[in-house]
Structures are given as structure tokens and as C-alpha cells.
């Protein structure tokens, strides 16, 4: 079984790495394609796609990491029909927003979803989304230990000049430090 794991990865952190590791183990995934959204349709990203791609490749050594030029997941699947039938990995927060995604029912027709849940996340929110879907059997859940950081918070802390090396893979931290990314003297954005 193949997995798809997409995101802005701005920057990739240990929570992303743990989600993929846990999913691989829980779901028995053979291969996983990690997709870096060049221009995500749901949020503004300031860091250049090439930089986020480099960081993500460093975060996931041994995985296939590609830049995804499509702004929405369903558009990516239409552009790459060979990816249909895969398991699309996402966190509980993203799943809770699924009704606002572009064509969520069509997405669910093309891939199964595997949702990482964590202790303390309100299960009723997930169950409400599941109840709205025409094919809830195409959604599975797996448990993930909570990670105390999000990319947004990392960017804020980095912009303040804080050391966040304990929250990102060592190879990612080395690139951030070497290149002065995220408010650490680096100026190429966009």
C-alpha cells in the first residue's frame, strides 16, 4: 500500500516526521510520497518552494519528496492519476476542516484517508465530519503521540532568534542555521 503525505512544510518538524513514521508502522505502508505544496490553496506561504523542498528532503531522508505544483489535493490527484488508490495521510486538524476542502467527496473517491489523532483532541469534531461523508469507511484513524510544536509557532520563535533545534530534525536545523532562514538573516522569500 502506498501513502501520500502533503503539506507546506514551512518548516518541516519532528511532528511531521513522527506522523509519517507512525503511519508507516500502523498502516503497513510500502512507500510514501511526500509532497511539498508549492503554493497551497488554503494558506499563505512566504518561504520559497525550493527552500521548503530542500528542508523537506532533509527531514525525510530515504523518502521520495516532490514539489506539488497543484494548489489543492484533488487537483494534484487529477494531474497525477497514478497516485489514486493511495492512502492520504493527514492530521486531525486538517481532517476537521475536510468539509471546506475542494471537492472532498471526489477526493475520498480517489484515495483513502488515514487521520492521525492525538490524546486530548475532541473526537466529536472528527465524528461529525465522518458522519457527513458518503463513504466514511474510506477513512481510518491511527494514534499519534502529541508533539508540542507547529510550523507556525516555529516560524515565530525563529523570527525572534530562538533556538528551536529540539523541534526539527538535525539536518533541517543545519540548513536553517547555515542559510539563515526564518528571520535569521535570510532574505530570499516568495
Task: Explain the layout of strands and helices.
Blueprint: E1 2-7, H1 14-27, E2 31-37, H2 49-59, E3 64-68, H3 73-79, E4 87-91, H4 92-96, H5 104-110, E5 112-117, H6 123-132, E6 139-143, H7 151-159, H8 170-179
Parallel strand pairs: 1-2, 1-4, 2-3, 4-5, 5-6
Provide a quick synopsis of the model.
The chain is an alpha/beta fold and 190 residues long. 38% of the residues lie in helices and 18% in strands.
Tell me what the structure shows.
With 190 residues, the chain is of the alpha/beta class. The chain has a domain at 2-46 and 62-147: HUPs (Rossmann fold). 38% of the residues lie in helices and 18% in strands. The protein is built from eight helices and six strands, in the order E-H-E-H-E-H-E-H-H-E-H-E-H-H. It has helices at 14-27, 49-59, 73-79, 92-96, 104-110, 123-132, 151-159, 170-179, and strands at 2-7, 31-37, 64-68, 87-91, 112-117, 139-143. The protein has a six-stranded parallel beta sheet. The longest helix has 14 residues, at 14-27. The radius of gyration is 16 Å and the shape is globular. The relative contact order is 0.19. Mean pLDDT is 93; it is low at 185-190.
Poorly predicted spans = 185-190
Rounded mean pLDDT is 93
CATH architecture designation of the domain at 2-46 and 62-147: 3-Layer(aba) Sandwich
CATH class of the domain at 2-46 and 62-147: Alpha Beta
The named CATH superfamily of the domain at 2-46 and 62-147: HUPs
Q: Assembly type of the shown chains?
A: single chain
Radius of gyration: 16 Å
Shape category = globular
Amino acid at each position: 500500500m502506498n501513502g501520500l503525505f502533503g503539506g507546506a512544510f514551512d518548516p518541516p518538524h519532528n511532528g511531521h516526521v513522527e506522523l509519517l513514521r507512525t503511519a508507516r508502522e500502523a498502516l503497513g505502508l510500502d512507500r510514501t510520497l511526500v509532497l511539498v505544496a508549492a503554493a497551497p490553496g488554503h494558506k499563505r506561504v512566504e518561504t520559497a518552494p525550493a527552500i521548503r523542498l530542500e528542508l523537506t528532503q532533509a527531514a525525510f531522508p530515504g523518502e521520495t519528496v516532490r514539489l506539488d505544483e497543484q494548489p489543492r489535493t484533488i487537483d494534484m490527484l487529477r494531474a497525477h492519476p497514478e497516485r489514486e488508490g493511495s492512502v492520504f495521510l493527514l492530521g486531525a486538524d486538517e481532517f476537521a476542516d475536510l468539509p471546506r476542502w475542494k471537492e472532498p467527496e471526489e477526493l475520498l473517491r480517489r484515495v483513502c484517508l488515514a487521520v492521525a489523532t492525538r490524546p486530548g483532541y475532541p473526537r466529536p469534531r472528527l465524528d461529525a465530519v465522518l458522519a457527513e461523508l458518503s463513504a466514511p469507511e474510506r477513512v481510518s484513524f491511527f494514534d499519534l503521540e502529541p508533539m508540542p510544536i507547529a510550523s507556525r509557532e516555529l516560524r515565530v520563535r525563529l523570527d525572534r532568534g530562538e533556538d528551536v533545534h529540539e523541534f526539527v530534525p538535525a539536518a533541517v536545523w543545519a540548513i536553517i542555521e547555515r542559510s539563515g532562514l526564518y528571520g535569521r538573516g535570510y532574505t530570499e522569500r516568495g
